[in-house]
Amino acid sequence: MSTIRNGRISSKFKYVKVEGIPELGLEPLEREYSDDDYLSVASDSSFASTTAVKERRKISRAEGCFITKESGYALKKAHWVNPVGNDATLKYEVEAFLRDLGLVRPKFSLHAASNMTPLNRDIHYTLDKLGFLAVTCAKETLQSLISLVEKENEEWKNRGGQYIRYFRLDQPPFTDAKYELVPLHARHFLQKGSSFLVYTELDAKTVSRKMYYAAPDGALREGRDNNQPRLPAFTTCQTPRASKDVLNPFLVVLNAEIAFRRFKRRSYPLCDEYTELVDLTIDLVNKIYFKPLIDQLEWNHSQLRSAYSIDVESDAETERTPTVDQVRTGGTVDNDKTRSTGSVSEQSKTGTLVEKAGTSVSQDQPIRDRNSRLGYIVKNPGPGASHDETVEYYQYLMSGCDYVDEDNSDEDEDEDEDEDWRV
Asked: Which domain of life is it from (predicted)?
């Protein structure tokens, strides 16, 4: 905020506190800043809740950008899976879905460090809002994950569904996963022949750097010719994390598959290496959404919704509705009974078209949703949904962007204001 002071343009803006980074030999900067203003921003944001801030602090400030390895206070701690909107019910539904698939730890939260990495803010915007880029696992990691998921699916099938898929997230290929940046629109990303600067960590305090350019085949290469070396696969930063906080590659792959699926609707040429990564990623995600498992999960979830709903019109109908404990423990229920879809208020929490849009359009007509990378709203299909409908609904829930437009005054939260990263 500018003002006039002593005949000069001045500002009432005060710098915020700058934390030190001992790993990089950086001391804190004690300067004038406003504690009240600073803390109120963090507390007002749904994404900067106490729990979320505690989780973000598990990521060292010394950890550079996940992709470029660039260090700096202006990096953003970005989520790889994040629900559309700020509804706590949607957040819970996504978390429960990921846990039921066996992809995350039992106490997983979307604000867990295993779902976040620091990112350069421009790259984050380009990836989330523009769709010029995607990040997936490297070929070797994708193949290892596919093998593991196939094995767990076979075990699930052999046991007739009386089995929970189990992945050792504290062991390879999860702890040593490699990743690749896939430019889906390289020339849009690097306009006028501009370059992409990537750092390589030589040790905890030293990096080297190299420029990459958009080659004619759409790959990022060390030169502008197709025969130049391609941008190599990368790992997380050398700064160690606790075992349970290591980035979960499943979550990165789920994010990438959403981008790849949209890209393939009107695809542009990609080099052979990137095309293979796209195909392997989609193959892995299809196996993650193992059809018999998804069908069982959707039936269980529909029973839970019915158990929570209250039918005030018919006591007899209520008596036939299983309790929450019955559903969770596999208690006996009448499979022939028509299952309740829950109340209108319950459906509105999970994305019903009419409720979300606030208009009387047909429910078959897609409604745009700027918070979804799919570009539209997918309503909860409810009981009896097909496998494809169920998957599409959960992919929609997981397609939210955690990037906030700075020029969008309609947003009611600004999670960019993260106390760990303000300078």
From this structure: Eukaryota
